[in-house]
Amino acid sequence: MKKFEISVLDLAPVRQNKTIHDTFNDSLALARAVEKLDYKRFWLAEHHNIASIASSATSVLIGFIANGTETIRVGSGGVMLPNHSSLVIAEQFGTLESLFPNRIDLGVGRAPGTDGVTAKALGRNPQNINQHFPHQIQELQRYFSVENSGSLVRAIPGEGCDIPIYILGSSTDSAWLAAEMGLPYAFAGHFAPQMMETAFEIYHQNYQPSKEFPTPYTIACVNGIAGETDSEAKRLSTTLYQAFTNLIRNDRKPYAPPVDDMDEIWNPMEKAHVQNILKYSFVGSQETVKTQLKEFQRRFQVNEMMITSAIYEPEARINSYAIFKNAVDELNGNV
């Protein structure tokens, strides 16, 4: 089995009866904890108009997390690039890289990170996104380059900054693009598992080496909920199941505490749909999630797994990440 890195995707989850200020402090506490555990990176995802997710101003939150930590890489997983001007993102991430040298990642995706009405409010043009998204990535690369110093439009800060760009996807479209551009590729398996295997195959089979990335690099984002026992983890996972059941019902309210019986909340059709969406969710004790991770890695052979964890209590969430790190260390032969 190929060894792999382990990282965190945080959505800045908002809990019922807690403030967004509490949410940001919880995210910082998590980042500090996983830094001590030697996680590779801590990414935040851009979402809008969802009361359970507070990471909409992604660049600002990255700065907050990077300022409160010392060594862990911090970045976006991702910035939804068609929501923004390429120049503004280059300036924002150039500023972050200048403040926190050699610690900032820029993951970019083409989805809106929200519903259609909100996407329109963000100024997106759905008619040209597929054509414009690759052009925006090229613009970012140009703005970050030293060679752009003679251009009429320059990113200051940003120019000359060594900021790795990662392409994110939840279908096969971005796999083709990441392969063509010779960039690392991260797949959103935590909510779109159906196309992951095909997307990774496309990426590897068509990869064009680049100067920065001579070999392909894959990241799989998955849900991870670990506890001291299988039963504890199963109960903790009901917060995640409630959240996705609410999304199906178009109810974006904050995350709810765990419950003893999900069958009292979802109906059979909702249950089947949620379980399909959350196919790549590793839930259980250390031994259980280690087995699940091992089976997943034997199949996909990724370079890195990025764990996102919708656990209600911050202390239990931190403990879950500690359990996952122990499991990965055992799999990689680091203990």
Descriptive tags:
335 residues, eight-stranded parallel barrel, alpha/beta, 12 helices
What does this molecule look like?
- The structure is a single chain.
- With 335 residues, the protein is an alpha/beta fold.
- 43% of the residues lie in helices and 15% in strands.
- It is built from twelve helices and nine strands.
- The chain has an eight-stranded parallel beta barrel with strand order 1-2-3-4-5-6-7-9, surrounded by eight helices.
- β5, α6 (173-181) and β6 form a beta-alpha-beta unit.
- The longest helix has 18 residues, at 314-331.
- The radius of gyration is 19 Å and the shape is globular.
- The two termini are 16 Å apart.
- The model has no long low-confidence stretch (mean pLDDT 95).
The count of strands amounts to 9
Shape: globular
Total helices: the number is: 12
- Structural class call reads alpha/beta
Widest sheet, order of strands: 1-2-3-4-5-6-7-9
Helix content: 40-55%
Characterize the biggest β-sheet. 8 strands, parallel, barrel
Question: Which runs of at least 5 residues are low in confidence (pLDDT < 50)?
Answer: none
Radius of gyration: 19 Å
Terminal Cα separation, in Å?
16 Å
Q: What is the strand content?
A: 5-15%
H and E string: EHEHEHEHHEHEHEHHHEHEH
Q: State mean pLDDT (0 to 100 scale).
A: 95
Offer a quick outline of the entry.
The chain is α/β, with parallel strands linked by helices and 335 residues long. Helix content is 43%, strand content 15%.
